């Protein structure tokens, strides 16, 4: 069970990293239509978790700090479980 949780947390960490990169890329560049479903899946997987932490962390100078908090929680959880 611990191995499954470690793998799931690692995969989610990569998905969250992709979300962060995509948020900057899509501001400057409109992605092709073929990538839109992939982007939608990444946003759908990360938005519930990020929106929960956004309730407690207002943007700081226009930057969303919720991904940083989620990364820290994943890091601590992996340290305890893996």
SSE order and pairing:
Layout: H1 2-28, H2 36-54, H3 66-81
Tell me the distance between the termini. Answer: 10 Å
**What is the count of helical runs?**
3
Work out the strand percent.
under 5%
Main β sheet profile = none
Sequence of secondary-structure elements: HHH
**Using only CA atoms, what is the Rg?**
14 Å
What structural category do the secondary elements indicate? mainly alpha
The shape is: globular
The average pLDDT is 90
The percentage helix is: over 70%
Q: What is the tally of beta strands?
A: 0
The stretches of 5 or more residues where confidence is low (pLDDT under 50) are: none
- What is the count of structural domains? 1
Protein described:
There is one protein chain. This protein has 82 residues and is mainly α. The chain has one domain (2-81). The protein is 76% helix and 0% strand. It has 3 helices and no strands. It has helices at residues 2-28, 36-54, 66-81. Helix 1 (2-28) packs across helix 2 and helix 1 runs antiparallel to helix 3 (66-81). The radius of gyration is 14 Å and the shape is globular. The protein starts with a helix and ends with a helix.
């Amino acid at each position: 069970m611990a191995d499954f949780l470690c793998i799931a947390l690692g995969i989610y960490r990569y998905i969250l990293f992709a979300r962060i990169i995509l948020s900057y890329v899509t501001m400057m560049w409109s992605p092709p239509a073929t990538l839109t479903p992939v982007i939608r899946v990444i946003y759908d997987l990360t938005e519930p978790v990020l929106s929960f932490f956004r309730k407690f962390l207002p943007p700081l100078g226009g930057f969303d700090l919720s991904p940083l908090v989620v990364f820290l929680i994943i890091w601590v959880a992996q340290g305890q479980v893996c």
